[in-house]
Each structure stands twice: as C-alpha cells, then as structure tokens.
Amino acid sequence: MSIKLPQKLMLLGSGELGKEFAIAAQRLGNYVVAVDRYANAPAMQVADAYEVISMLSADDLEAVVTKHQPDIIIPEIEAIRTEKLLEFEQRGITVIPTAAATNYTMNRDRIRELAHQELGIRTAKYGYATTLEELIAVSDEIGFGNVVKPVMSSSGKGQSVVQDKSEVEKAWNYAIANSRGDSQKVIVEEFINFEIEITLLTIKQWNAPTIFCSPIGHRQERGDYQESWQPALISEDKILKAQEIAIKVTDALGGAGIFGVEFFITKDEVIFSELSPRPHDTGMVTLISQNLNEFELHLRAILDLPIPHIEQLGASASAVILASQKSDSIAFSGVADALSEKDVDIKLFGKPSAHPYRRMGVALAKGINVQEAREKATKAASKIQII
Ligand SMILES: Nc1ncnc2c1ncn2[C@@H]1O[C@H](COP(=O)(O)OP(=O)(O)OP(=O)(O)O)[C@@H](O)[C@H]1O
Ligand SMILES: NCC(=O)N[C@@H]1O[C@H](COP(=O)([O-])[O-])[C@@H](O)[C@H]1O
Ligand SMILES: [Mg+2]
C-alpha cells in the first residue's frame, strides 16, 4: 500500500496530544480537521478546519464526517461513540488504528477482557461492579488496598485507592460522578506495589514489523501523570518481556499507529495495565528525547511512511504544568526564567480555560543522567505560574 499525500485527516479530540500530532501532519502538508467538545481546543489552533461537537453523539459524528469527507479518522481520546467509527470504517474511511481497537479501548473492561481472558496476559486481579452493593462484595473478594476506577474515564478521573471497607462508598460515589458518558460501571483492581511503572511506545506499521521506543518511566498522582523520563532504567529481560506482551495485544487490535502500552514493573514481574491506541501523555518526553517524537511516529505509521531509525538522544524528562484554580482568562509568568536554563524547553498548550489540576503545559529537559533531567524538568515546570 502506498498512500498519496496530502491526506485529509480528522482528529477526534483536539487536546495537547492532538496539537502536536496536527503540527507533525501539517509539516508534511496534510489537511487537518480538528474536532472536540469545546471551541479553541489546542489542536484547533493549528488545524485547517475545526468542528465543535459531542463525540459521544452518533449524529454529530455523522454530520462532521459528511461535511469534511476525511480520508483518515484519528481518535485522540477514548470517549467517542465507537460504534459509529465501525460504520465509517465499513464505508471505506480508515480509522486509526482500527475501529475495533477504539471500541476495545473505549472502556477499561473490554481491553482488560481481551488481554487477560483471551490472550492470557498477567494483569492485576480485578472485578467489576454496577451498584454500591456489588462494589462492597467485589472489594472483599479482591481485598484491600485496591483501586476503583470508572470503566470509562482517563487521566485518573474518578479513580481512588481504597484502603479499607469504610472507604468503599466514597470511592463508588466519586467514580460514578466522574465517569464519562452514561456508564455506571466500575472496575476494582488489586493495588500493585510496583517498583516503577513504564509506558512502552509501540509502533505498529501497515507493511513493516512492529518497532519500539526505549521505555519511558513515569510518576503519577491522583491517577494522572506528573513526570516522565526516558530511558527507564529496567533490565533487558523485563524490556523484552514487555515488548512480547505489547506485540500480543497490539497484534490482536490490528491496524497501524503508535500505542502507549502501560506496565507495572515489580521485582519479579511485568504486569500489563492498559494501553492507549494513540500517542500517550507520558510520551510527551519524546518531544525532546528522540529524533522522531511519538507524534511524528504515529503520523509515519498511519501514512505508511518509513521509520528507518528511532534514536534516543540521551537522559530526558518531562514535568507537567498544572492549573491550581478555575479561570477563563489564562496568562503565564515565569516562562523566561524557566527557559534560561540550557537544554530546557516549555510547551504551553493554549487551553482557553483552567480548573484545578488541568494540564496546561509541559516542561522538557535533557540532563547528564535521568535524575538530573527530572530535576531540571520539575524545576522548570515549578517556575511557570498561571496568573
Ligand atoms: N492496580 C493498580 N495498582 C497500583 N497503581 C495503580 C493501579 N491502577 C492504576 N494505578 C495508578 O494510577 C495511574 C492511572 O491509572 P490508569 O492508567 O488505569 O488510569 P487512566 O485514567 O487510564 O490514566 P491515563 O488515561 O492517563 O493513562 C497508573 O498509572 C498508576 O500509577
Ligand atoms: N491521559 C489522556 C490524555 O492525556 N489526553 C490528552 O488530554 C486532553 C484532554 O485534556 P483536558 O481534560 O484538559 O481537556 C486530550 O485531548 C488529550 O490530548
Ligand atoms: Mg493509564
């Protein structure tokens, strides 16, 4: 297969990850339509056209696809009416990585069943609940501490760590209140006491073997990523084990594009957690750490362009810049100060409004080792204030 350029690409979801993808796509002259639930979303600012719709509405999706006639649809978030994507695919539009893959990963339960039940991959012990009573019962089976998450959510929304029985009701209410769409189902997972958690960026190509980036280590708070670094210092045999699992899952999902495959690494085990069939937030470190970043890799894989070599450029890190309060008028201070240090870069996403913990930007750094890179990135991020 050889894909002619330019292509008309429709991004479903237009946040910071979509913005960097749109920039990569534009650099090869493609036409980008950015879609999201609110106006002036980051990717819309760099796209040829944009649409504001509910991506959970089949009618809204139909209207924008009819209007723009994209060659390729590229989901950027999980919460999309994925049944509609199956229909578009049947009508001959390419959906990345495949419509079935977006359907599997829209909810945590489907991808978990695929990995654990069908492919026999080691995951945390887990169960589901659709009422508080069920959650109480299933929590007892799984044991404490455990982690309760809505089956449809991302970036830690609605997620809590439950230490004992007295906290179950609070976790239920929090999960249901923060679930995306109309889902009332939660997953309970055994708490894994990992040494490190990693994202293995896995690039599945149309006509070439699957390739990998060097593993990315990360640290999360409230279920949301705070800093990431590359390379993650884990043993070669654990990397090979993670690659083997990533190949299994991504082969089952099919198609082409980058996947962020998440693992918990314990002293003896490599435990599959979940995956994004698209660039991963922790993979923003590749904006500084590689010759081709995760967005360029996604684009090349989608457009069947060669990836002759992925070069890791040395110890690098990213640290998030979070909002601390609600605001509709965003301005930043401290940018000059943060950029005064060598090998430090800042990306500000241009989100039009803020609320507590919303990710507004990211600081990137290179260092003589991972520890120094992390310190530089964290220090740079801390200098940026939202005023
Ligand atoms: N079973 C578990 N044991 C220990 N920690 C966990 C467990 N499940 C989740 N976590 C912690 O919470 C983080 C977020 O969980 P998870 O990746 O499932 O949520 P998410 O909302 O899909 O996040 P994202 O969309 O940003 O990838 C994990 O990266 C990990 O740090
Ligand atoms: N872990 C998934 C993730 O990082 N997704 C990224 O965050 C955006 C939503 O941000 P918002 O909630 O601030 O609008 C999404 O559009 C995507 O770029
Ligand atoms: Mg995750």
Automatic annotation (TrEMBL):
InterPro entries: ATP-grasp, ATP-grasp_carboxylate-amine, ATP_grasp_subdomain_1, PreATP-grasp_dom_sf, PurT, PurT/PurK_preATP-grasp, PurT_C, Rudment_hybrid_motif. Homodimer. Pathway: Purine metabolism; IMP biosynthesis via de novo pathway; N(2)-formyl-N(1)-(5-phospho-D-ribosyl)glycinamide from N(1)-(5-phospho-D-ribosyl)glycinamide (formate route): step 1/1. Keywords: ATP-binding, Ligase, Magnesium, Metal-binding, Nucleotide-binding, Purine biosynthesis, Transferase. It comes from Nostoc linckia FACHB-391. The keyword Magnesium applies. Residues 113-303 form the ATP-grasp domain. Its EC number is 6.3.1.21. Signal peptide: none annotated. It catalyses: N(1)-(5-phospho-beta-D-ribosyl)glycinamide + formate + ATP = N(2)-formyl-N(1)-(5-phospho-beta-D-ribosyl)glycinamide + ADP + phosphate + H(+). N(1)-(5-phospho-beta-D-ribosyl)glycinamide binds at residues 16-17, 76, 281, 351, 358-359. This is Formate-dependent phosphoribosylglycinamide formyltransferase. PROSITE patterns: ATP_GRASP. One of its GO terms (molecular function) is transferase activity. Belongs to the PurK/PurT family. ATP binds at residues 108, 149, 154-159, 189-192, 197. Mg(2+) binds at residues 262, 274. Involved in the de novo purine biosynthesis. Catalyzes the transfer of formate to 5-phospho-ribosyl-glycinamide (GAR), producing 5-phospho-ribosyl-N-formylglycinamide (FGAR). Formate is provided by PurU via hydrolysis of 10-formyl-tetrahydrofolate. Pfam families: ATP-grasp, PurT_C, RS_preATP-grasp-like. The lineage of its organism: Bacteria, Bacillati, Cyanobacteriota, Cyanophyceae, Nostocales.
